[in-house]
Amino acid sequence: MSVTVRHLREQFDDAVQQREASTLGMWAFLTTEILFFGVLFAGYAFCRVMFPEAFAAASRHTDMLLGTLETAALLTSSCAAALAVREVQLGGRRAATWLLLATAALGSAFLVMHGFEYVAEYHEGLIPGLRYTQHGPHAASMQLFFCLYYFITGFHGLHVSIGVGLLLAMAWRTHRGAFDQDYHTPLELTALYWHLVDIVWIFVYPLIYLIGRAL
Amino acid sequence: MSARSPTHQTRSHRSGPVPPSLRSNLLVLAALLVLLGLSAGSALIPMGVFNEVANLGIAAMKALLVLVFFMRLKTDSPLLRLVAAAGFAWLALLVALSLADLLSRQNLLPPW
After folding, report:
1. Domain for residue B1, yes or no?
2. Count of domains in chain B?
3. Which domains does chain A have, with CATH numbers?
4. In this complex, which of B32, B45, B63 lies closest to A214 when CB atoms are compared?
5. Residue B50 located in a structural domain
6. Smallest CA–CA separation between B112 and chain A, in Å?
7. What would the pLDDT profile of B9-35 be if each residue is shown by its tens digit?
8. Residue of B5, B8, B15, B53 to mutate, testing the A interface (most A Cβ within 10 Å of its Cβ)
9. Does residue B74 carry a pLDDT above 80?
C-alpha cells in the first residue's frame, strides 16, 4: 500500500485512475503522431498516384536487404520493450534493465544501418538539392519520391533517436529501482511510444522499399 | 511486500491490465517476422496490383499485432481502443479524401 501511495498525486482517487489518465494522455499524443506521419503518407499516396512509374523506378534504388534487416531489428526491439514492461510488472528488475538496454541497442543498430543507406545514396547521387545525378525519363519526378523518402525516414529516425534516449533513461531508472509492480507508468508510456515508432516503420517498409521489385 | 513475490502472483494488477505471458509475446514476434518474410518474398513475385494489396495488407496485419498485443489494447481500457481507432480513422479520412479528389477529377477544357 505504501508503495502505491508514494507515487499517487493528490488529484487522483487511486493508482488505477492515475494510470488511466497517464495512458489516455499518451494515446492522445500518439494519435497526433499518427496524423503527423499521416500527412507525409497522404502526400506520398498523392504523388505515387500521379507518378507510378517514377516511384517504382526510384524505389528500386533503395536497399531492400538493409530495409528488411532494419524492419526485423525494430520488430524485435518492440518485443523486447513489451517484455521489459512485463518483467517489471512481475517484479524482475534485472531482466527488465537488460531488455531495455537490448531495445535501445536494436534501435541504435537501426540508426546505424540507416546511416549506411544515406551514405550509399549520397554516393549514388540520389539526394535532391544536395547531390542528384539521375538521368532518364523519370529523373525529374523521381525527386518527389526521394524528397518524401528523406522527410519520412528523417523524421522517423529522429523519433527513433528520441526513443533510444528515453529507453536508456528508463533502463537507468529501472536499474536504480524507481519502478516496481505497482508503479511503472513512465516505462509503460515509453514502451507505447516505441511501439508506435515501430508501427510507422511497418508502413514505411513496403511503401519505400518494396514497390516495383517484381519485374 | 512478501505476498507479491513472483511465485505468488495473483495475475491481477492493481493499477493496470494483467501482464501477458512470455509465450504470447514471443509468438507475436515470430508472427511478425514471418509476415516480414512473406512481405519481402511476395514483393519479388510479379502479381500486378496484388503486390500492393499484399504489401499493405501484411503491413496492416503487422500493425494490428503490435497494437493489440505489444501495446496491450486487447487487455487495457476500452477508452484507449477508442482513442487509437479515432487516430487511424482520421488518417483514413485524410488519405481517402485526398485520393478521392485526385482520382475523380477530370480535366475540364475551358468553353472558349
Report:
1. no
2. 2
3. 14-209 (1.20.120.80)
4. B45
5. yes
6. 28
7. 344 465 778 888 999 999 999 999 999
8. B15
9. yes
Instruction: Examine residue B49 and state whether it is found in any structural domain, yes or no.
Output: yes
Do the beta carbons of residue A75 and residue B33 sit within 8 Å? yes
Domain that includes residue B28, residue range? 19-75
Residue B38 belongs to some domain of the structure: yes
Q: Which residue of B has its CA nearest to A15?
A: B15
Are B42 and B68 in the same domain? yes
DSSP bridge pairs for A76: none
Q: Which ipTM score applies to this complex? A: 0.92
- B80 with B70, same domain: the answer is no
Same domain, B33 and B57: yes
